[in-house]
Amino acid sequence: MKLEARLVSSVERPEAYRIISHRHGVIRPNSRILVGLPESDRFQVFDLDTLLSGDQRPAADFRIPATAVGDHAFTPDLRTAVFCTADKVVATGESSWEWPLAVAGSKNGSVFVPSDGKHVWAVVPAAGDGQEWVVLDAADGKLVGRASLPWRAYSTQQQSIDGRVSVTLIEQDSCAIFWGEYGQDGLRLTEVYSDEEVLADVDPSGRWLMTINQQGWFVGLRTMPDGNSVAGWCDSRDISRKLGFSGDDPTHWWSTYGGFVDETTAIVSCRDDDWEIHTHWLLPSPATDADEATVDLRGPVKYPGTAAERLWALGDGTWITADDDSICRWTLD
Q1: Origin, by domain of life (predicted)?
Q2: Cystine design at 200: which of 153, 256, 258, 297 (Cβ 3.0–4.6 Å)?
Q3: What is the pLDDT of residues 91-111, one digit of tens each?
Q4: pLDDT digits over 73-87, tens only?
């Protein structure tokens, strides 16, 4: 496989990098890739293919409540938006309802609507120092499931290929990852084993998940859903060796931007010590469930210009990079 990136499409847009910052809230109904972006007092939803064709008109546009905090969400039919405010979860649009928080004064809420559009998943404060994960009916806001989370922290939610929803809790020195499944027995949680790692992506086959150490020490390719079996492992020092540096201390570090280009290949961004030079590296998806397998790190990927720090792998053979003023979609030549 060549390590040369070929440009598929691109569009110029102010603060283009923000589309990658909001990649965790993406949903994929009927093969569309929909991403929501807050713009001043508006919450706008874009079809990624349409945006990259040069049409920058949003597919949906909602007013953000003045007291909204954290991440926002939208339904796949683009008729309703959901927000978390300091004291409630609120839906606006075709469906309009409010669900009051048990503990008011939240400064960091998180809401998410999966691609089936049936439920709203919200991470909200609980009594004491904890948080809880609640599942609400998207039509009327009725509580249908809830589970306790261990501590209060910044959180992101995203959906896997098989319909599970994940939440990653992030503090300065610690992280925790959970899968949630809602069914007849309510909301059931599975904790993903991790070592100060954030969840980066799940591969299109639904077999593997990628985790990245918060400090940039390593990338792990783990088995779904609990992550207990490490099928691939890549230390930051492997980058240094590939670039010809000697010594035991790493000269380059993994960033938290990574994901699966397709079922066979993953891509991860890394940086140098000074945060000035960024490179992207390819990791083959594991073929077996072997523990502690060594990943054959390949790279860096060659671009026509300078590699951006931020990337977002789409799982269809392409990935997105973005900087201050442009969004680019790439594939391997």
Answers
A1: Bacteria
A2: 258
A3: 999 999 999 998 887 777 889
A4: 999 999 999 999 989
Q: Do residues 126 and 103 make contact, with C-beta atoms less than 8 angstroms apart?
A: yes
Q: Where are the domains of the chain?
A: 65-192
Q: Which strands make up the sheet holding 318-322, listed edge to edge? A: 5-12, 326-332, 318-322, 310-313
Q: In 160-309, where do the E strands start and end? A: 165-170, 175-183, 186-192, 197-202, 208-213, 218-223, 230-235, 252-260, 265-272, 278-284
DSSP helix/strand/coil, 300: coil
Cβ–Cβ < 8 Å for 134, 175: no
pLDDT per position as a tens digit, 210-253? 989 888 888 988 888 888 777 777 888 888 888 888 777 888 89
Q: How many CB atoms lie within 10 A of CB 229?
A: 16
Which CATH topology does 65-192 take?
Methylamine Dehydrogenase; Chain H (2.130.10)
What are the structure tokens assigned to 229, written together? 């079996």
Q: Across-strand partners of 122? A: 111, 134
Q: Are 170 and 150 in contact (CB under 8 A)?
A: no
